[in-house]
Design a protein that fits this description.
Helix content is 63%, strand content 0%. The protein is mainly alpha-helical.
């Protein structure tokens, strides 16, 4: 189990960072490269997968899932799914280059597959998807700054033009919807989940306690 978890997370790291490298290294890394959501989501997915690898090695248990890691995995999975959907529906869905294929298709699918397989290993709070929308909100000033330098980064999302506010609301709803889908997976118990040794009940646990005198409860 641990080896399989490590293998999947190594694949995610490789896809995320290789895609990012193909996207930014040929022309030299510029701050404007980080104004694209594809690059940001790839870096975040890769970084969280690295954290997952470290936790798995330290805990020596493929089922280990601290609360903070579960939240970050859920968040980055939702963000990656937004990258997948928006690129396919609104940006042409051209996966002919390595950067495009890795950032917009392979990395989101691997992140989603790992989440479907492992889940969160705990019930995430109902408001988790609302928290995850915070990063896209923080991304808006970055997008506006990048668009001011080079023109609209995405042709359908043009600051200052009619429809910009509408698209902003639509995108927030897409982020919230993907977060909700990811959160719902955290409510489903994985079929291969096994309790850790400290949660195994003692065979004497269910025996009634001896009482002295009449039971007045």
């Amino acid at each position: 189990m641990t080896a399989a978890v490590l293998a999947v997370r190594v694949l995610i790291v490789a896809a995320a960072f290789t895609g990012f490298g193909h996207a930014v290294l040929p022309g030299g890394v510029r701050w404007l490269d980080l104004a694209y959501w594809s690059q940001i989501s790839s870096l975040l997915v890769g970084a969280v997968a690295v954290a997952g690898i470290v936790v798995t090695i330290v805990e020596r248990d493929g089922r280990a899932m601290p609360a903070w890691l579960a939240q970050l995995r859920g968040a980055t999975t939702g963000w990656a799914l937004v990258t997948l959907v928006i690129f396919w529906l609104l940006l042409g869905g051209d996966y002919s280059s390595p950067a495009s294929a890795l950032e917009h298709l392979v990395t989101p699918l691997l992140a989603a597959a790992e989440w479907i397989w492992l889940g969160a290993r705990r019930r995430l709070a109902w408001f988790s998807p609302l928290l995850w929308v915070g990063v896209p909100l923080l991304y808006l000033p970055v997008y506006l700054a990048g668009s001011a330098v080079s023109g609209p980064l995405y042709p359908f999302f043009r600051p200052g033009e009619d429809g910009f506010g509408t698209w902003f609301v639509i995108l927030l709803l897409v982020f919230a919807a993907m977060g909700q889908v990811v959160w719902l997976r955290s409510l489903v118990r994985s079929p291969h989940h096994v309790r850790s040794p400290h949660h195994v009940r003692s065979p004497h646990h269910d025996r009634p306690h001896a009482t002295i005198g009449p039971d007045r409860s």
